[in-house]
Amino acid sequence: MMLNTLSGRFLILTTIFVFIAEVLIFVPSVARFREDYLNDRLERAQIASLALLADAPIDAALERELLENAEVFNVVLVRDDVRQLVLSSPIPAPIAATYDLRDVTPLELIRGALANLARPGDRVIRVIGTPVREAGRMIEVTMATAPLRAAMVDYGLRVLILSAVISVITALLLFLAVRRFLVVPIQGVVDAMRSYASAPEDARRIIEPSAGLRELRNAELALQSMQMQLTAALRQKERLAQLGAAVAKISHDLRNVLTTAQLFGDRIETSTDPAVARILPKLLGSLRRAISICEGTLAFGRAEEPPPALAWIALADLVQDVIDGERLAAGDHDISFAEDVPPGMTLRADGEQLHRVLSNLVRNARQAIVATGRPGEIAIAGTETDEDWIVTVTDTGPGLPPKAREHLFQPFQGAGRKGGTGLGLSIASELVRGHGGTLTLARTDARGTAFRILLPKTIMRLDAA
């Protein structure tokens, strides 16, 4: 349907508007035509009266012929303050209206023209004007309105036909111009969107801005930016999916290796060597956690962590276990570890998941301090209030760079050091959220960084409806 297209509606609206403009021109034009018609009858009447002005006698037949040629019934001239009936003939009807053209306004001309057109009958009117070439002070004639109205109707029809032709031609030209400079470029943008939608991963389908119109070019630039961002996001999503599949395969093989290592650990558990007896429990605990992580990865091929298995745990033992592991990993680097946890402090949490959270935070702090080449300290403190358990991890490292702060807990974007993946903080934040708590950055500056873990003591439940 033509009405459902932009160019079709523009064509119809343009035709209507141009026709309205022509109609607005038509009314004053018809009024001007009527004024010219009446002035022409006054001039004819003045010429017809010249015979009597020359004091030459004329017979009745010549007087009647002069009046018929002038298309009037009688002629009155005012010369030298004398009113004189120059030519006369019987008037078929009383005078219906008088029109004075000597000092008439445009509005009066339009009103008189509309009155003549609105009354189809033949009436007698009086017309007053000024003689040409100063032949007197005033000339007055009486005439019939039927010839005047017929001439006005004929002129009006010709004007309307011409207006209609001009409207159609103008609308057609505007239609072609709009279609060429607006509709066709818009259709090109629509085609580009459809092409991109069919294969959004294909960068060759991203639109290349080419419009000359500023507004349309801005739309193309915005579309190009959106398409580039979407294509990059889809590529990243595909890489993440491939990475997930690879992690699942690696976790499968790694689980087998760790299980074998655990079996060997069980074998040497009976060793009487004091050093082995001291280190072996921590080694077996690390192996169990690693196997648990691999099994959790294989359990379901998605990024979400399983819900925590809540139990009462001693925070001091958990913190000591994390610090012992990181102290071994620090090796010869000058890093000191401190803990400030009340001995009897227990909290309700998933021990394995909370161990992973603290390990990620302490590991990131250790790696940041090692990267500086200077001595440093890492401290874990625990406190509690009536509503929450609070664990803080602080370090004396260099602080987080601005880019890492912007995407701190987003995977692959919140890495705080060169070579980091940005997964550690993302995993830690997700595990804490699984407990109903929050992991926040308390501060980071040249003095170091502090993270705050808040675990609520109350368990929120939805009341039954």
UniProtKB/TrEMBL annotation:
InterPro entries, per database record: HATPase_C_sf (IPR036890), HATPase_dom (IPR003594), His_kinase_dom (IPR005467), HisK_dim/P_dom (IPR003661), HisK_dim/P_sf (IPR036097), Sig_transdc_His_kin-like_C (IPR004358)
Pfam families noted in UniProt: HATPase_c (PF02518)
Residue stretches in coiled coil: 216-243
Gene3D superfamilies referenced in this protein's UniProt entry, alphabetically: 1.10.287.130, Histidine kinase-like ATPase, C-terminal domain
Enzyme Commission number, as recorded: 2.7.13.3
Transmembrane segments: 6-27, 159-178
Top EC category: transferase
PROSITE patterns recorded: HIS_KIN
Keywords, ordered alphabetically: Coiled coil, Kinase, Membrane, Phosphoprotein, Transferase, Transmembrane, Transmembrane helix
GO molecular function: phosphorelay sensor kinase activity
Keyword field contains Transferase: yes
Phosphoprotein found in the keyword field: yes
Domain Histidine kinase: 249-459
Organism domain of life: Bacteria
Catalysed reactions, as listed in the record: ATP + protein L-histidine = ADP + protein N-phospho-L-histidine
Name this protein carries in UniProt: histidine kinase
Lineage: Bacteria, Pseudomonadati, Pseudomonadota, Alphaproteobacteria, Rhodobacterales
